[in-house]
Inverse folding.
């Protein structure tokens, strides 16, 4: 017998003894009776009775893979959040009747109040963003149904020196006016019914300086042009009911032959949508979830969403992009593809869906569209977001406040937008087209942008709250989906300046 034949015989014997197909024993089957997911023996067992989006099959897809810094960070964040999401670790937080942590209303309100007092030395870096602190902390308290009217006098006296004679507000004393700081100041003042301090005529002239001949807006005179400027400027124009005609010395009027603040704006916003479907800060830039909100909210100020949004954006492509920003297994949102979950995008991305759902043309069965809003059946997983915010975003202990993710510290920014995101998930919002036929009357300007005032909201039903896993004490206030204020504050601004003029 040759050596070749000897080798073949040896191989036959090895295959006969070792390469066998065996039936798996019954006690090694998965919970539903099927063979186990490949590699299941390498995975820790998860608790039962998890939500469907956290099923064992889904969780088994998230394996340790440190091939790149991004995958390493994603895996680390998922591992950080899973014990809280699965309720293996409740961090000592009191639980509601559904087994989820209660919304810590009082500690969160106390935390926001503390951020309006004396701050430690590192906060000096935020001197140019002082109005944002006012807005986050005052509006955030109002979302918790706290009475914020007592801040009115203090806020007016604090922001009065930040208002420049040429119009608009700076971030700190002696600083140039800036759209973001002016927007935050106007929202904070509206929250406490203190808009009388605003020099509306100077504001109108200043906004004329940041309107650009191509239809967009700069963030400040000679500063960058991006979609934040457009949203901030239109919000200011609308809440203050400033004339839509451009001032005579506006660069857009002098060099672009534009007549109105709204001229060519929709076309410019359209140019910010990328091939991915998302919205960039400016044409050709990287897309981002917060820019998507600015674009959608801006278009909802211009006109009814069923007209303005489809006219300027590829809605199916944008919808798919936004839906892909909801992370698994965390259930929160990221701001960009392959980035980490962050509680602030509960608002910046989560609030987009009410605006998108209202973009369906009225002729496509308005009753069905309204029924979708009422039942909460939509484009995103609201229960997953609520679970993330209650289990992972709340700061345990005495301090209160809400945070980006469990490894981060709480701050006013994430607390405010986490609460706004909760409102987007817990309530139902829609555009009331029937109000378009109403005549407000008495407006000297004659061209007030009224579309954003026609939004309506309703509290979710008891059945919907059970589906989200929240009790009565976990429900926040209705937050306007365009202006990110209590509806009462928006209505107060509308009535205050209903007469128009300067």
């Amino acid at each position: 017998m040759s050596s070749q034949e000897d080798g073949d015989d040896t191989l036959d014997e090895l295959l006969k003894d070792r390469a066998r197909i065996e039936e798996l024993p019954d006690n090694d089957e998965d919970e539903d009776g099927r063979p186990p997911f490949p590699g299941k023996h390498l995975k820790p067992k998860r608790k039962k009775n998890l939500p469907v989006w956290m099923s064992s099959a889904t969780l088994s897809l998230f394996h340790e893979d440190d091939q790149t810094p991004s995958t390493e960070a994603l895996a680390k964040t998922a591992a950080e959040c899973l014990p809280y999401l699965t309720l293996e670790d409740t961090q000592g937080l009191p639980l509601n009747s559904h087994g989820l942590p209660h919304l810590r209303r009082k500690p969160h309100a106390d935390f926001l109040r503390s951020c309006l007092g004396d701050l430690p030395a590192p906060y000096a870096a935020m001197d140019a963003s002082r109005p944002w602190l006012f807005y986050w902390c005052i509006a955030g308290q109002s979302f918790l149904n706290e009475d914020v009217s007592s801040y009115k006098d203090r806020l007016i006296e604090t922001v009065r020196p930040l208002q420049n004679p040429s119009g608009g507000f700076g971030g700190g004393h002696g600083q140039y006016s800036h759209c973001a700081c002016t927007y935050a100041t106007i929202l904070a003042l509206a929250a406490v019914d203190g808009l009388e301090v605003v020099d509306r005529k100077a504001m109108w002239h200043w906004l004329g300086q940041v309107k650009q001949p191509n239809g967009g807006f700069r963030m400040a005179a000679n500063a960058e042009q991006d979609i934040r400027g457009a949203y901030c400027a239109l919000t200011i124009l609308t809440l203050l009911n400033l004339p839509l005609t451009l001032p005579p010395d506006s660069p857009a009027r002098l060099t672009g032959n534009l007549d109105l603040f709204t001229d060519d704006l929709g076309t410019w916003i359209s140019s910010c949508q990328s091939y991915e479907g998302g919205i960039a800060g400016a044409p050709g830039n990287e897309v981002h979830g917060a820019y998507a909100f600015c674009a959608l909210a801006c278009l909802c100020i211009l006109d009814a969403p069923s007209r303005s949004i489809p006219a300027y954006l590829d809605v199916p492509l944008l919808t798919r992009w936004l839906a892909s920003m909801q992370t698994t297994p965390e259930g929160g949102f990221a701001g960009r593809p392959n980035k980490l979950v962050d509680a602030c995008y509960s608002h910046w991305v989560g609030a987009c869906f009410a605006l998108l759902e209202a973009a369906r043309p009225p002729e496509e069965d308005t009753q069905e569209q309204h029924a979708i809003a009422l039942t909460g059946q939509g484009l995103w997983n609201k229960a997953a977001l609520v679970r993330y915010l209650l289990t992972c975003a709340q700061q345990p202990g005495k301090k209160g406040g809400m945070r980006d993710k469990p490894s981060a510290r709480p701050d006013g920014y994430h607390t405010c937008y986490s609460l706004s995101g909760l409102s987007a998930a817990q309530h139902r919002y829609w555009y009331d087209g029937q109000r378009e036929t109403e005549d407000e009357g008495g407006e000297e300007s004659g061209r007030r942008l009224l579309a954003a005032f026609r939004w309506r909201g309703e509290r979710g039903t008891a059945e919907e709250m059970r589906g989200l896993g929240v009790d009565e004490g976990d429900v926040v206030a209705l937050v306007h989906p365009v202006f990110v204020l209590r509806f009462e504050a928006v209505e107060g601004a509308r009535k205050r300046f209903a007469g128009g003029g300067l």
